Model the fold of this input.
Amino acid sequence: MATPIFVTAASIAAELHQAMLEAKGLALTAKNARALAVRAGSKTVGFKAITHFIDELASDIIRQSQYINGVSEGLSQHAVALWRAALAAEKFDWIAHQHDHNLSSLQSAMHQSRQQREELSAALTRGLRELEQQLEEGDKHIRTANLIATSSKVEAASAGDFRNQLEVIAQNITDTADKIRKHLSKARNLLSQKQNYA
Done:
């Protein structure tokens, strides 16, 4: 049996919440890097510029995670409403079959129920597409994080006494990006599973 979409949406939201927590850690790393760059002075001029990008990236990931969580919550609500509309349609069909002499009094409600189900199904499909696009955008952020980490390692090499500390920061960026990537990958896997919309 396929997993109901509202369960999947909640699971995706949980994965993205974890990614957001990792991004908050990345924001802290940016602050630490900035403080270290200030202490190191001219030895870390290149690294100082990179700290701005780290902070901006963390903010972007946090913002995007919050947005995707909203999309996931909306999907879950639409899926529950669609499930209820499908149940209502089944009940109407059963009543119409059992009591066909009252069918004319049910026509309006049956039509309204079918229309609502179609609208909810379309909204759910749009939401799933939006979620997929946002996950792809998240992948771009991870590629950016890896580029920043590589640049940080290059800059750390010329930082003299501060090299080890800057290398730790660069490694932290890499590790955090990897953790976020794993959460995004889990979310994408959940999204790609066969879904039961109703």
Residues 45-98 form the longest helix (54 residues).
